[in-house]
Write a sequence for this structure.
């Protein structure tokens, strides 16, 4: 049975994500909530959640001894499938621009910056259900179709190369809702809060062969 490391670094909707992954796996995978570098190195897949500000999440992430080195080894060197959720997705960028500039993991070159809807009626934070548009990239993303997903955020990742944008969303203007580069994927929405469509995405991640 494959193992999935759900990274616990003190930030994220961890229990909801765990329950959703367990349900999506339906007995086909062991979901391990951990920040233990040794367990992470042995995992077949990695999920990085995150809720809150980019800087606070990155500081919490870096405060776990050996965590970043273990993830770099598993994701970047061994090429195991990775899924970032919300701020966990944003951390793969080069830098975040929330409360000043903070260095990210740099797996997908680009910045995380505040969304600025052109429509004055589109509120920030962006909260609620929105359909995905312009899906591309791996079938992990394209296979779920233009399903409405649940968002709650004020910042989003903007890759340097639009080829790394796997889906868009419109909230008074378009911005990336999902990214993908090689074995690294991320979603700005919360699949664990997105009912059947979110579970379908998690199930696809458990079967993804990038």
């Amino acid at each position: 049975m494959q193992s999935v490391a759900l990274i616990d670094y003190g930030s994220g909707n961890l229990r909801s994500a765990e329950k959703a992954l367990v349900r999506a796996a339906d007995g086909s995978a062991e979901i391990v909530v951990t920040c233990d570098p040794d367990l992470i190195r042995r995992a077949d897949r990695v999920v990085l959640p995150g809720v809150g500000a980019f800087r606070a999440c990155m500081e919490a992430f870096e405060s776990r001894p050996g965590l970043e080195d273990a993830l770099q080894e598993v994701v970047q060197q061994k090429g195991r499938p990775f899924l970032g959720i919300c701020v966990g997705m944003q951390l793969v960028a080069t830098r975040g621009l929330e409360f000043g500039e903070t260095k990210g993991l740099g797996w997908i070159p680009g910045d995380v910056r505040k969304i600025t809807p052109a429509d004055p009626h589109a509120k920030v934070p962006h909260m609620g259900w929105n359909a995905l548009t312009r899906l591309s990239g791996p079938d992990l993303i394209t296979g779920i179709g233009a399903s409405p997903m649940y968002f709650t955020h004020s910042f989003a990742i903007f890759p340097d190369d639009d080829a790394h944008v796997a889906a868009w969303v419109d909230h008074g203007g378009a911005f990336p809702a999902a990214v993908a580069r090689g074995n690294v994927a991320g979603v700005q929405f919360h699949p664990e809060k997105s009912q059947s469509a979110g579970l379908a995405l998690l199930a696809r991640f458990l079967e993804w062969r990038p």
Remarks:
- The two ends are 19 Å apart (CA to CA).
- The chain is about 30% helix and 30% strand.
